[in-house]
């Protein structure tokens, strides 16, 4: 069965700082990878996804993530965070050929201070 | 505007009560899911369904059951609520046309407190 680990539980940054949130998954086969974001009081929404091809994927609001297959990682990055990026971020995996449901990580709460 | 609607935003129940959480989607989606969200644990899959009357167990099905009698509605049932089932419950849906669930749409959640 697939699983996802997010190492940073709570990250505090100042505006304009760079962001990198770690995500590792465990599954030996082909996977699709996702980052979801939950802004305070709002629904979970998709930030970006990786299916195949270029391992560097770009999402909304200036976020990007890099899939490194050899490290089973899919870290989320943003060069310069804004106060409006304060939210909880979830990494998720869907193992192809496995069950038709996403497995989520434990989440990282990002707090951006103005 | 397409949406996933959960019937209650907040619920307070007593230990031992039977609890029904309702979820309705208006997008004609085949797949529907129930997750619970707990601080530090993220989202954990309870049950999912990819067709009417079909269901599959997720990672933490114990103490829960589900019902999918109509395509648009997916109910989560706590047979005998316990305090460790106090949590935020999230319903989600997606189309079979997106088998990798990249267009997973979430409801706003039901915060259940079991006293």
Task: Describe what you observe in this structure.
The complex is a heterodimer of chains A (114) and B (115). Chain A is globular and about 45 Å long. In chain A, strands 2, 5, 6, 10, 11 and 12 form a six-stranded mixed β-sheet that branches. A four-stranded antiparallel β-sheet of chain A has the order 3-9-8-7, with no helix packed on it. With 114 residues, chain A is mostly beta strands. Chain A has no helices and twelve strands. Chain A is 0% helix and 53% strand. The mean pLDDT of chain A is 93. Chain A has strands spanning 3-5, 10-14, 19-21, 24-26, 31-38, 44-50, 56-58, 64-68, 73-78, 87-95, 103-104, 108-113. With 115 residues, chain B is mostly beta strands. Chain B contains no helices and twelve strands. In chain B, strand 6 and strand 7 form a beta hairpin. The mean pLDDT of chain B is 92.
List strands and helices in order, with pairings.
The complex is a heterodimer of chains A (114) and B (115).
Chain A: E1 3-5, E2 10-14, E3 19-21, E4 24-26, E5 31-38, E6 44-50, E7 56-58, E8 64-68, E9 73-78, E10 87-95, E11 103-104, E12 108-113
Parallel strand pairs in A: 2-12
Antiparallel strand pairs in A: 1-4, 3-9, 5-6, 5-10, 7-8, 8-9, 10-11, 10-12
Chain B: E1 4-6, E2 10-13, E3 19-21, E4 23-25, E5 31-38, E6 42-49, E7 56-57, E8 64-70, E9 73-78, E10 87-94, E11 105-106, E12 110-114
């Amino acid at each position: 069965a697939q699983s996802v680990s997010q190492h940073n539980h709570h990250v505090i940054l100042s505006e304009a700082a760079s962001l990198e949130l770690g995500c590792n998954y465990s599954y030996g086969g082909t996977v699709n990878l996702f980052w979801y974001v939950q802004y305070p009081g709002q629904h979970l929404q998709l930030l970006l996804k990786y299916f195949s091809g270029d391992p560097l994927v770009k999402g909304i609001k200036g976020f990007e993530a890099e899939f490194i297959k050899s490290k089973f990682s899919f870290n989320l990055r943003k060069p310069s965070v804004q106060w409006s990026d304060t939210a909880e971020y979830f990494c998720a995996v869907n193992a192809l050929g496995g069950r038709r449901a996403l497995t989520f990580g434990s989440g990282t709460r990002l707090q951006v201070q103005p | 505007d397409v949406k996933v609607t959960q019937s209650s935003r907040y619920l307070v129940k007593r230990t031992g009560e039977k609890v029904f959480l309702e979820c309705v989607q208006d997008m004609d989606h085949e797949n529907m899911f129930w997750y619970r969200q707990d601080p530090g644990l993220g989202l954990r899959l309870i049950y999912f369904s990819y067709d009417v009357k079909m269901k599959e167990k997720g990672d933490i099905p114990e103490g829960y059951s589900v019902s999918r009698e109509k395509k648009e509605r997916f109910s989560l049932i706590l047979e005998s609520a316990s305090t460790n089932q106090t949590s935020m419950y999230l319903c989600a849906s997606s189309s079979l046309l997106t088998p990798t669930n990249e267009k997973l749409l979430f409801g706003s959640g039901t915060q259940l407190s079991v006293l």
